[in-house]
Structures are given as structure tokens and as C-alpha cells.
Write a structure and sequence with these properties.
The protein has helices spanning 17-30, 52-64, 118-125, 138-143, 160-167, 184-195, 207-214; strands at residues 3-11, 34-40, 43-50, 76-82, 90-94, 114-116, 131-134, 144-146, 175-179, 200-204, 222-224, 226-227, 234-235. It contains seven helices and 13 strands. The two termini are 31 Å apart. The chain is of the alpha/beta class. The longest helix is centred in the first third of the chain and has 14 residues, at 17-30. Keywords: Oxidoreductase, Transferase, tRNA processing.
């Protein structure tokens, strides 16, 4: 049996996030889904797996059902497959942020950088005046990254703010392009850079996963594999499973 995996997020005001927790958990459980979903006042983030029918019904419930009342109309989605169930349980949490950054003034629902789709990414990062930054954690970067990308060498996403203060200057770095696994971290990072005076900020829509799904290996600027926060461990071009299937308890979303 093949399972369908859905990685999803959206920055959107959810002042009633606490009240959404129990009914969302019930929807997931009734569909037989496993994985992790995080709710916060700033939005939703998660990765879940189940049958193709269960995933389809779940996404329909998020987008069109009464629980979110049409607020998830810009839900960022990436789909992939798993030969075995990549999660051990279902977890639905309420947290202060859907991806931990530690700066409450950063609001991607209000302002973000310019989205660049997978087909336009090679052209952007090939420009000599573009500073390309990998916003992921150091161990993720070690598994694979884009040619020429800067590794901030951070252990957690919240360390990105220190990297910016230490290494970046809006007067010097006039054109910045960022990427991450699925798009959520670089979207938040782009909002942060704009708030710090950087003028031309771009980020890869759908992240590395969308790039590996859409770009053929012969045209790719990606080297290595992409770490994912489930028991598949890593994916390659075409989102093919590459990992040994080692358990990664507590790491099912890009919350750090």
C-alpha cells in the first residue's frame, strides 16, 4: 500500500486557534491520518499522511469546510508518496508560532518578499548580484543544498536573526534570495529582512520540495538530498524516497 503525504502551511490570522484544536484533531483521526499539525494565532503548519482519499477529504475540509470558514484559501501544499506510513501517531498542537522564530513583530500574513516559482529559480540564483541563502538548520544543509548558497550554520531557525545581525547589511546585500524545505521558513525570513530595511528579497515558492518535484535533474542546480521531517528521512528529484527509514520522533514539521 502506498500512502500520500501532504505538507501544508499558511500564514493567516487565527485568533480562535485554541478553539479549532479539538475539532481539527477529530477530523484527522476520523480520516485515519497520522503526522503533526501546529496551530497558532499566525496560521497553520503540518505534514500528514494517509490514503489518497483521506488526504483529499482532509484538504477539502481545510479549504471548504466550516471549521476554517474559507480562511485557508491560500494554503501552500506539497504532495509526495511513501511506501510505508512515515509517522507513528497523530499530533495536533497549539503553539505560539507555526514555525519558531522568536520575533513577534515578524508577520508574513501582512508582508513577505517576492515569490519565485521553481521554473524561475535557476535564473534568479544564477544572477551574479544575487545572494542566495539557505535558511534551514545546519544538519539539513549538510545533506543537500543549491550550488553557491550561503549556509548560516544555525542549529535552530530562531538563530537566523543572529546570522542577519552578524553577516548581512541592507546597503551591501541589495538582492537576497532564500529557500527552505517547503517554503514556510524562508517566507518568515523574508518578512523579517524586509522589516530590517532589505529592499529586494525573494523566496522559493513551495520550497525545495516543489523544486525537486518540477525541475528535471538535467536542469537542476540542486546537489544532494532534501531532508524531510518524517521517517523517509530524505527525498531526491521527483520526490523519490532516499532515506533509510530511521525514526525521527518529534521532528514531523519544520517548527525549528
Amino acid at each position: 500500500m502506498t500512502f500520500r503525504v501532504a505538507a501544508l502551511y499558511q500564514f493567516v490570522a487565527l485568533p480562535d486557534a485554541g478553539g479549532l484544536l479539538a475539532p481539527l484533531r477529530e477530523i484527522c483521526a476520523d480520516s485515519g491520518l497520522k503526522g503533526t499539525i501546529i496551530l497558532a494565532h499566525e496560521g497553520i503548519n503540518g505534514t500528514v499522511a494517509g490514503t489518497a482519499e483521506a488526504i483529499e477529504g482532509f484538504i477539502d475540509a481545510l479549504r471548504e469546510g466550516p471549521l476554517f470558514d474559507g480562511r485557508l484559501d491560500r494554503l501552500e501544499l506539497k504532495f509526495s508518496a511513501a511506501a510505508a506510513m512515515p509517522f507513528k501517531r497523530l499530533k495536533v498542537h497549539l503553539k505560539p508560532e507555526i514555525v519558531t522564530f522568536g520575533d513577534i513583530g515578524t508577520d508574513p500574513a501582512r508582508r513577505t518578499g517576492t515569490y519565485v516559482d521553481a521554473t524561475g529559480w535557476n535564473r534568479l540564483i544564477g544572477c551574479p548580484d544575487t545572494l542566495v541563502i539557505d535558511t534551514r538548520n545546519q544538519f539539513e544543509v549538510a545533506m543537500g543544498t543549491f550550488d553557491g548558497a550561503v549556509d548560516p550554520r544555525i542549529g535552530r531557525f530562531s538563530g537566523f536573526r543572529d546570522f542577519v545581525a552578524r553577516e548581512l547589511d541592507p546597503a551591501k546585500h541589495r538582492k537576497v534570495a532564500m529557500f527552505c524545505t517547503g517554503g514556510i521558513r524562508c517566507e518568515k525570513a523574508s518578512s523579517y529582512l524586509l522589516s530590517r530595511g532589505f529592499q529586494e528579497v525573494y523566496h522559493l515558492r513551495g520550497g525545495i520540495l516543489k523544486y525537486l518535484e518540477e525541475i528535471a535533474p538535467a536542469e537542476s542546480r540542486w546537489t544532494g538530498e532534501c531532508f524531510v521531517f518524517d521517517e523517509r528521512v530524505a527525498l531526491g528529484h521527483g520526490l523519490a524516497e532516499r532515506g533509510p527509514g530511521a525514526a525521527l520522533e518529534g521532528a514531523q514539521t519544520s517548527d525549528d
